[in-house]
Design brief:
mainly alpha, two-stranded parallel ribbon, two-stranded antiparallel sheet, 14 helices, 6 strands, 8% strand, globular
Length: 393
């Protein structure tokens, strides 16, 4: 989480794991940021309050949508209420092996970006990143807006179905390259998202940056599923060490964060009261500090649902733990006048609070035994069955 920075130039969005890596590198810049603007107490309070509020939104709604997403997958449905009807919108399960390898992969990616920025021109690299994140941002924001559009339009609205299909080969050996299904409502979402994307590319405005950032974070919490609590502990613990090492041990993360222009952070101006929407001195929070704890909190919500007790004890305890951890980050940063890595405080609180609650309720064993079936397994079984049927015919 950063104290202040002169007008950041972020640029278009995040792709699953890459998004998380980039987010952490951004959060590191926060750590070592130099104060360039002395904000008023009111401006500081408004900025930090705005960041906390924006951080809670994708976690809360992303967790709720992850439950709907998970139920739809279990029922074998090809679509669910929260977005487009495409394979890329279905949840991706993170296993224990994935969680253990992720800090290593993240470290290699971070160091690779560091070397890349050292060798090549920063201007041209960020130009390519702008185009890449623009496309990802438009899709992420469209997916986020889709449920809202479904509620806004009346049932009498003529919602036509479309399909973008690109194949390779003849009939018997035809292979699908692109198979994208959408309807009129989705098309409207795409148009609105494209307008926001153009606004961001042209102006690099902090509101457009936050719209893309919130969409990335919400999609990450919704679609990245931990298969069990142990995996969540491995992932959060590994990234805790990763964050501390690259922040305090080297200048790699700081260099990448300062060079990398993308909407991988939420920002809120501390000089909003003085300069209005043209404010340029920002407090910031990396998306990794939202998505990483967020997917763990979403897992606990799905665990609450699996208990069938009509209570959300573990979800609310972890959600309050996140607020506590983020508040502690801000307190330490404000007290010592130095930006802090939020994961340093978020990981112990988000893991510790629910574990204490489970111990008090005598459900610790049940919590760690909870397991989610990876969606890929279901898909592979369906494919195997269809191939077997073809052979039999």
């Amino acid at each position: 989480m950063a104290e202040t920075e002169q007008a950041p130039d972020p640029s278009a969005v995040l792709d699953a794991l890459n998004a998380l890596n980039a987010t952490d590198s951004n959060g590191t810049e926060a750590l070592n940021a130099t104060v360039k603007f002395v904000a008023s107490p009111e401006g500081t309070a408004l900025a930090y309050g705005g960041l906390v509020f924006m951080a809670l939104l994708p976690i809360f709604f992303g967790a709720l949508r992850s439950v709907t997403c998970s139920k739809s997958k279990e029922l074998g449905e090809n679509e669910y209420d929260s977005g487009f009807r495409n394979a890329s919108d279905m949840p991706e399960t993170i296993t224990g092996r994935d969680a253990a390898r992720f800090p290593i992969i993240a470290s290699c990616t971070l160091f690779g970006l560091y070397l890349f920025f050292k060798v090549f021109s920063q201007e041209y690299i960020n130009m390519l990143l702008s185009v890449y994140f623009f496309g990802l941002g438009v899709l992420a924001l469209s997916h986020t807006m889709s449920p809202l559009m479904s509620r806004i339009f009346p049932e009498s609205f003529s919602n036509k179905q479309y399909q973008l299909l690109f194949t390779q080969g003849s009939e018997e050996y035809r292979e699908e390259i692109v198979n994208y299904e959408f309807d009129t409502k989705n098309l409207i979402c795409l148009i609105i998202s494209t307008v926001v994307g153009v606004w961001y590319l042209v102006k690099k405005h902090w509101i457009a940056n936050n719209l893309f950032g919130l969409a990335f974070a919400l999609n990450g919490v919704e679609l990245l599923h931990l298969n069990n609590v142990s995996t969540g502990c491995i992932l959060l613990g590994g990234l805790f060490v990763y964050d501390v090492f690259w922040v305090f041990g080297t200048n790699v993360m700081v260099t990448v964060a300062r060079s990398f222009e993308a909407p991988i952070k939420l920002v809120f101006p501390q000089d909003l009261l003085e300069r209005g929407l043209d404010a340029s001195n920002f407090a910031m929070l990396g998306l990794g500090d939202i998505v990483i704890p967020g997917i763990f909190i979403a897992l606990l919500l799905r665990f609450d649902v699996s208990l069938k007790k009509n209570s959300r004890t573990y979800f609310y305890s972890s959600f309050l733990a996140y607020i506590f951890g983020l508040g502690l980050t801000i307190f330490v940063m404000h007290t010592f006048k130095h930006a802090q890595p939020a994961l340093l405080y978020l990981v112990p609180s988000c893991v510790g609070f629910p574990v204490v609650v489970a111990l008090l309720k005598g459900e610790l064993t049940e919590m760690f035994r909870y397991e989610e079936t990876p969606p890929e397994d279901t898909d592979s079984e369906v494919k195997e069955d269809s191939e077997t049927e073809k052979k039999d015919q």
